[in-house]
Design goal:
This protein is about 50% helix and about 15% strand. With about 240 residues, the protein is an alpha/beta fold. The strands form 3 sheets. Strands 1-3-5-7-10 form a 5-stranded parallel beta sheet, with helices on both faces. The chain has a 3-stranded mixed beta sheet with strand order 6-8-9. A two-stranded parallel sheet has the order 2-4. Helix 1 runs parallel beside helix 3, helix 3 packs parallel to helix 4 and helix 3 runs antiparallel to helix 10. The protein is globular and about 55 Å long.
Amino acid sequence: MGEPPIAEIVLDFPPVNAVPAAGWQSLADLITAAGADPATRVVLLSARGRGFCAGVDIKEMQRDPGHEVLLAANRGCAAAFAAVYDCPVPVIAAVHGFCLGGGIGLAGNADLIVAADDATFGLPEVDRGALGAATHLARLVPPHLMRAMVYTCRPVTAADLHRLGSVHQVVPAAELPAAARAVAEVIAAKDPVVIRRAKEALNGIDPVDVRRSYRFEQGFTFELTLDGAGDRARRSFGERR
């Protein structure tokens, strides 16, 4: 039948893949459409540029005199992360460079992660006056490490996550596209009906409702914005940049 049908979706928001509010919703729509296509057997999520994802576009948020961008980003992130999780076929994240903030939401909800040896994973939300995606980080690291990463904002390496079993494979950066596609092809060659039921079954036995858990976290981001702490942190981040 030739090459198995693999839908590749590529993050491409130069220079660092800081995704604007509308970009999160667009990503959710693309993933949902790929999964809804009965010909799709695997979705491969990758990125161009210096890193996989730097999270939300803070500069876009700072340009907004109100809260419209924050609200749109909150809803867009929730939709994109849920689209990965709810996709009826396995989603493989091919991660290189930095995977931060919203990138953790995408990778943490993916079924498998193949990473370049230069990949790092972190949740710097506290330094940016926000909270969220600890739900997804908790799927990648043990509880106390998750808390340490949230409080200190320090990242971990792909090698660290490989030792924990969260990253399926670590390869040299130049080999990442081929390695991720090779894993996708193994899965895509399986019986598609069985694979779709396997995804449904695995989601059904998850102990945490990732959608509800993440939306709970997002409420604190809005609270921090209303009391001024979020804006102070984002201004400080902008000044450091």
